[in-house]
């Protein structure tokens, strides 16, 4: 295609800084690997912003994109079938769907994605939104026992719901991160006996620290959970028919259980990129603030983009530290930025500045967060009371506000988000409206040693340590 004509030498397409005509960026072939929340929202954004070329979406699951948060809540409680979790469409994407087939390789030179069925799909620009998967029980023969589950997919949720509906004698949840805690909550709401085994000192310690972890521990025990912290499950034992019957713990005790749910965190889906030359590994796919992927030499690409849980991107609010975020809101915001930048000239591209935020509902309490709590050195109870399990906790790092977490007090989040965005000092210099004696001074946040593995973090930090840089942002969505 040419943009000039014989009649007028001035009828040329505007040219971007990288030499590509602007109109051409809205044509050609775009491939999205990952039929996920991020993949769908990126596809919608591409069409909304005028992309008229061919669009192919590849996914290893047989379903079009669906919502995962309800799987550990409404689906396990029987309030919604697993196959009723499809994501609502904002608009038609006019895509070719390649579902139920995994991507197995990437040739960046030829610009082709290899598929498990032997086919290859060519692209002009590629977006990777492959997300994460549940980490399985590490002993394969034990993992195959009837009664051992993980929870990540629709099929996982449907199978676990069926088993919980059969009134098991006891459910063992291995790992007390957010997913494990939500599963335990659903089991107790169904009236099932539940034991939670957590190798850390408290539930949620990797994500919220020990101070709030103690609150989570009290919450679980108050709702009848047999919570055992500081222990590991060393083995799962089955009967002659291959059915789970017993779990062995590191403290030498044994526990009879006929259902075990393994909630040991996630693995990012990057193995298919081995040998591709892309900067991908266990922590995700490294990209710049505009969602362009880096190659293994640290050089940014201009035709490969990444978004969602699998991305590892620098955040200017946190000193350009690379963050891997397992957040619903981040997947949407980053996908929209990636899609916009894929079809925009260099001068029109935007950085991904979404402030991390997440929420969880467990044992009748709504937990919400903004910022990166796991970066905090100290925590201050700014409103409410730990004893009442209704409070706002503010985290500080190197003298600035870095995060806030609320238990049933989310009205304060927007206020503290603004403090985070403007690098406000920590502890906040003002008196809060209802600060109790326990919140008069900051205390150590009590996060575990970062060199030791913990269950259920929502943010993975890597790269350089953040500085005290002051940056102002426009308010983001919570």
TrEMBL record:
Domain Reductase C-terminal span(s) in chain numbering: 358-428
Got a GO cellular component term for this one?
cytoplasm
Q: Does the keyword Flavoprotein apply?
A: yes
Q: What domain of life does the native source organism fall in?
A: Bacteria
Q: Name one GO molecular function term.
A: oxidoreductase activity, acting on NAD(P)H
Pfam families for the chain = Pyr_redox_2, Reductase_C
Known cofactor(s) = FAD
Domain named FAD/NAD(P)-binding is located at 29-335
Task: List, alphabetically, the InterPro entries matched.
Answer: FAD-oxidoreductase/Apoptosis, FAD/NAD-bd_sf, FAD/NAD-binding_dom, FAD/NAD-linked_Rdtase_dimer_sf, Reductase_C
The UniProt keywords, alphabetically, are: FAD, Flavoprotein, Oxidoreductase
PANTHER family associated with the record: APOPTOSIS-INDUCING FACTOR 1 (PTHR43557), RIESKE DOMAIN-CONTAINING PROTEIN-RELATED (PTHR43557:SF2)
This protein is called FAD-dependent oxidoreductase
Organism listed in the record? Streptomyces botrytidirepellens
